[in-house]
Amino acid sequence: MLLKSHLVYSAAAVRRILGLPHHWPVKVEAFADAVWVWIKGRRPTFWPKQAFKQHFCHWRQRRAQAVEITEIRPSHFAARSVGQTTGSRESIYFLDARAEGIFCTCEDFHRQLSAWNRGCCKHCYAVLAHLGFNSLGEYLALQDQDGWVA
Fold it and tell me: For residue 42, what is the DSSP state?
């Protein structure tokens, strides 16, 4: 079973934040106010949860820069990663811009949706940028304010 906390407070996130190899031994455990982090060869320490939350969004925003967006029709988009390595399979995901958010067909988005009833994967961030928004919050605020739909 996927726990909500495993999406944000993960060993993979620690490795990305510190630039460690993906196989480097790391253990993570979330508590009420902080996250306990153990990294091989270092003393265990507590990290602020905010560091993980910021990384969760910023990492997806950075990865969105390598996503090409095509508008199929108003409020409907296709997303394709550009610059894939030779031999890798290209994936195309479909997205809808709705008043309650941007919805994607990728696995990351559906994991977030099942955990929090909302999500924003790299493809969603790419569509938000395509539409001129810097964040999902900015997009949702405009929806509430003007009843605007992309």
Answer: S
